[in-house]
């Protein structure tokens, strides 16, 4: 018996060393946004290991992190609500977001006193609201000074959560950040070695490569994993991060649960790269940037209008078209291919933006989770 146990132990250790990444628990994460008005209690948290509650704000006067009073109850009950369906799910309070003012983040990060206000208030808010971690969504640091200050902020933030944990005896807060798809953002480099050493992981925002508001003369894959014609793709970004010194096991690949709708110049020309005339308008497209959630694409175009749907495996994107409306988006095939890529590449996992975009049966999040297993 003892010898059998010993043999088993040796075998386990051997296998562990053979393939250490197999022992790492994958991150299967999702952001919930208070803007979505999607009920927190309707999140199928069994499909996730981590859920991000978005967004807390940065006050540009006090440099403290705050929660909008209208969201206070949703945020303070977020953890207990999502743990009803999955007691093991971990939650993080996400700060900032695409609609926040990047100038305020730059100003905060530039001075020791304002960094301290930010850091101390973030930890206090995470603890008082029952979150397991904090996530920074500064979109985006713009200058080399911003990038250097971001590095200082992250170093001080990690030291502060470590010290808080040892002085209170609580489990250390998780620290993550959502960053650009590439380690180079608008020709400025993220402070990669600090990012690697101070964060638990980075959420790589591998989407919004093409959209009708900024690539308006032809259709394109909004979040392609590959792009034969440019460096704007998920895999090119991940390779840039790795080439700059990031480690695979601290990268989590972003999957968008939305697409973008273009207006075709000619309904008969409906491939990727077909001539377009800006964003689609009219029924079904209510956003001002042409974005549309996966469930609306299904309801209004694929099931509703009988749009033809196709998959392009060379870029890893789905698209559908009906009349002169053309939508590039992620469906079951592209989600599965991206998750296979992430796992094969040795990344830590994936996240979705955002959980409210999935269909009523969680088909995309189910696909992602099952593909990883
Ligand atoms: C600070 O934020 C408030 C509220 O968002 C905004 O109205 C104001 O313009 C900002 N002030 C500065 C100096 O950024
Ligand atoms: C962002 O903040 C800066 C200063 O902090 C302010 O000048 C600017 O107006 C703000 N922008 C928006 C869109 O609120
Ligand atoms: C496309 O973008 C260009 C440059 O921003 C702009 O001048 C043009 O009006 C846009 N066209 C459409 C159809 O949105
Ligand atoms: C997108 O472009 C339209 C005009 O075509 C404009 O009204 C809208 O504000 C733009 N949205 C964003 C998010 O840039």
TrEMBL record:
Q: Where is the GH18 domain?
A: 26-373
This entry carries the following GO cellular component terms, namely: extracellular region
Keywords, A to Z?
Glycoprotein, Glycosidase, Hydrolase, Signal
Signal peptide, first to last residue: 1-23
In terms of superkingdom, the source organism counts as: Eukaryota
Q: Does the keyword Hydrolase apply?
A: yes
> Which GO MF terms does the UniProt record name?
chitin binding; chitinase activity
Q: Which SMART domains match?
A: Glyco_18
Q: InterPro entries, per this entry?
A: Chitinase_II/V-like_cat, Chitinase_insertion_sf, GH, Glyco_hydro18_cat, Glycosyl_Hydrlase_18
- Tell whether Isomerase is among the UniProt keywords: no
Biological process GO terms, please? carbohydrate metabolic process; chitin catabolic process
According to its UniProt record, which protein family does this protein belong to?
A: Belongs to the glycosyl hydrolase 18 family. Chitinase class V subfamily.
PANTHER family according to UniProt: CHITINASE, GLYCOSYL HYDROLASE FAMILY PROTEIN WITH CHITINASE INSERTION DOMAIN-CONTAINING PROTEIN
Protein name listed in UniProt: GH18 domain-containing protein
From what organism does this protein derive? Cinnamomum micranthum f. kanehirae
Could you read off the lineage of the organism from its UniProt record?
Eukaryota, Viridiplantae, Streptophyta, Embryophyta, Tracheophyta
């Amino acid at each position: 018996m003892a010898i059998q146990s010993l043999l088993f132990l040796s075998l386990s250790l051997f296998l562990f060393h053979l393939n250490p990444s197999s022992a790492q628990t994958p991150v299967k994460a999702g952001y919930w946004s208070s803007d979505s008005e999607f009920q927190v209690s309707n999140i199928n948290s069994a499909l996730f290991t981590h859920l991000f509650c978005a967004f807390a704000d940065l006050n540009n006067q006090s440099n403290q992190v705050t929660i909008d009073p209208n969201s206070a109850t949703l945020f303070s009950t977020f953890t207990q609500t999502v743990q009803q369906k999955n007691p093991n799910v971990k939650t993080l309070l996400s700060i900032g977001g695409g609609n926040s003012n990047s100038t305020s983040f730059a100003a905060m990060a530039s001075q020791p006193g304002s960094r301290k206000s930010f850091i101390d208030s973030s930890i206090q808010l995470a603890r008082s609201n029952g979150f397991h971690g904090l996530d920074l969504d500064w979109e985006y640091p713009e200058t080399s000074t911003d990038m250097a200050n971001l590095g200082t902020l992250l170093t001080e933030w990690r030291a502060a959560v470590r010290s808080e944990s040892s002085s209170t005896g609580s489990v250390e807060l998780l620290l993550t950040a959502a960053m650009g798809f590439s380690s180079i953002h608008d020709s400025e480099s993220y402070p990669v070695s600090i990012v690697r050493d101070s964060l638990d992981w980075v959420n790589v925002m591998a989407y919004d490569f093409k959209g009708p508001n900024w690539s308006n003369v032809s259709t394109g894959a909004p979040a392609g994993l590959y792009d034969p014609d440019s460096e704007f793709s998920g895999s090119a970004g991940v390779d840039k991060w790795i080439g700059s010194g990031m480690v695979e096991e601290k990268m989590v690949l972003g999957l968008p649960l939305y697409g973008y709708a273009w207006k075709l110049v000619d309904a008969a020309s409906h491939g990727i790269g077909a001539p377009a005339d800006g964003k689609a308008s009219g029924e079904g497209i209510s956003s001002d940037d042409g974005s549309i959630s996966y469930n609306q694409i299904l309801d209004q175009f694929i099931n509703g209008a009988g749009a033809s749907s196709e998959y392009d495996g060379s870029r890893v994107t789905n698209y559908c078209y009906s009349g002169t409306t053309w939508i590039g988006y992620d469906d079951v095939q592209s989600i599965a291919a991206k998750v296979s890529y992430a796992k094969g590449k040795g990344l830590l996992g994936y996240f979705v933006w955002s959980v409210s975009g999935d269909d009523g049966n969680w088909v995309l999040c189910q696909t992602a989770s099952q593909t990883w297993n």
